């Protein structure tokens, strides 16, 4: 009876893990389809004006309709999503690197730990949008300014998690024993600390992405982000507001829903990657 129960629970856990992997795979496939579609769209054709087809509602020929210049909103939205994803990837990497550096720095000594904690609290106390706008203006407008603005302001949650996790690991008996045995800090970090924080870094990297693209769209919508000539989602939504009250709802609804879909996909991936990397969360479901 015990063997049967043991086998049952083993299969049960394996099924949950398999379901988690399937969800991640489906989400990634959907994400790749969207991104590859945006890559292979001809920018010149996609942004071409056609004043004989202005403000056309959604149809088979134009799934997302056309705008006030007769441009295909479907291809414009795909190009905008490609820009948002590119910015999201770069800012996520930059954010993660900063968080890792500060997390490691906090483990060196008490003075560095207090300094890192102070910097985290300082940056965390300032509203994100305001800080992003200020930093992006300092680095100039455009894609570079947006990347630096978002990347230099979104590291605080992950840095706080890494700092707390490293402190907890350093307080364990096996780390204290390793110090008493004369092992170097690098050896202890390589054997005991890095393997235990990798999962937090991966999940943090993924979960920063949706925040990054939402903030990119937000500051572009407000006029502090990308150039108005770029087909970014924030620019598309800002332009659409001038026509939304006239009944041209598709100019804002479809680009907005597409951006929301990307955000939900990455939230789903992050949540399930966390389940996959944390066996306790998988068993608890």
Automatic annotation (TrEMBL):
GO BP annotations listed: transmembrane transport
Highest taxon listed in the record's lineage: Archaea
Record domain ABC transmembrane type-1: where: 81-270
This protein's record includes keyword DNA repair: no
Alphabetical list of InterPro entries matching this protein: BP-dependent_transpt_permease (IPR050366), MetI-like (IPR000515), MetI-like_sf (IPR035906)
Subcellular compartments: Cell membrane
UniProt keyword annotations, A-Z: Cell membrane, Membrane, Transmembrane, Transmembrane helix, Transport
TM region(s), chain numbering: 21-41, 78-104, 193-213, 248-269
Membrane topology note: Multi-pass membrane protein
PANTHER family: ABC TRANSPORTER (PTHR43386:SF23), OLIGOPEPTIDE TRANSPORT SYSTEM PERMEASE PROTEIN APPC (PTHR43386)
Family stated for the protein in its record: Belongs to the binding-protein-dependent transport system permease family.
Protein name, entry field: Dipeptide transport system permease protein DppC
GN (gene name): dppC
């Amino acid at each position: 009876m015990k063997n049967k129960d043991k086998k049952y629970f083993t299969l049960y856990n394996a099924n949950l893990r398999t379901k988690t992997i399937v969800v991640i795979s489906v989400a990634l496939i959907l994400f790749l389809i969207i991104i590859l579609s945006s890559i292979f769209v001809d920018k010149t054709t996609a942004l071409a004006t056609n004043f004989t087809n202005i403000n056309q509602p959604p149809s088979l020929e134009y799934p997302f309709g056309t705008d006030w210049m007769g441009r295909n909103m479907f291809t414009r939205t795909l190009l905008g999503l490609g820009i948002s994803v590119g910015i999201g990837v770069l800012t996520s990497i930059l954010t993660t690197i900063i968080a890792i550096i500060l997390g490691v720095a906090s483990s060196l000594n008490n003075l560095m730990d207090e300094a890192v904690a102070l910097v985290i609290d300082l940056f965390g106390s300032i509203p994100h949008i305001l800080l992003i706008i200020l930093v992006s203006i300092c680095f100039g407008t455009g894609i570079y300014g947006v990347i630096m603005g978002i990347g230099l302001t979104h590291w605080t949650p992950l840095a706080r998690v890494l700092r707390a996790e490293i402190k907890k690991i350093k307080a364990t008996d096996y780390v204290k024993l390793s110090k008493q045995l004369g092992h170097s800090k690098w050896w202890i970090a390589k054997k005991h600390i890095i393997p235990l924080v990798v999962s937090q870094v991966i999940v943090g990297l993924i979960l920063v992405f949706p925040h990054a693209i939402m903030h990119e769209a937000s500051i572009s919508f407000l006029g502090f982000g990308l150039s108005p000539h770029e087909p970014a989602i924030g620019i598309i939504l800002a332009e659409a507001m001038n026509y939304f009250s006239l009944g041209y709802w598709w100019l804002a609804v479809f680009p907005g829903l597409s951006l929301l879909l990307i955000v939900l996909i990455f939230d789903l991936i992050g949540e399930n990657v966390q389940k996959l990397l944390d066996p306790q969360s998988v068993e608890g479901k």
